[in-house]
Design brief:
Length: 88
């Protein structure tokens, strides 16, 4: 069973990638999976925000909790110069 330290580790790792481009894979339920690319805009104590550039010059912001990453409802892959890094 995961404890609070695991959530703090996930939060610290996401805070380290603020401003970096990421690939977001979110399970929306009923076999619907959303795959988008965006930038981690900000990290707060309970949630983090990803800015997604959509079609037709629209910008969308989505927020997820760190427990979503822990339960793998959301999977983040940081697109870095050194290669792709999966946040877990």
């Amino acid at each position: 069973m995961a404890d609070r330290n695991t959530l703090n580790e996930i939060r610290r790792s996401i805070e380290g990638y603020v401003g970096c481009p990421v690939t977001l894979k979110a399970n929306k339920g009923r076999k619907r999976i959303l795959v988008r690319e965006g930038i981690i805009e900000n990290a707060y104590p309970n949630i983090f925000i990803v800015k997604i550039n959509g079609n037709f010059d629209s910008v969308r912001r989505v927020s997820y909790s760190y427990s979503d990453v822990l339960t793998e409802t959301v999977q983040l892959t940081v697109n870095n110069d050194n290669g792709d890094i999966k946040v877990s």
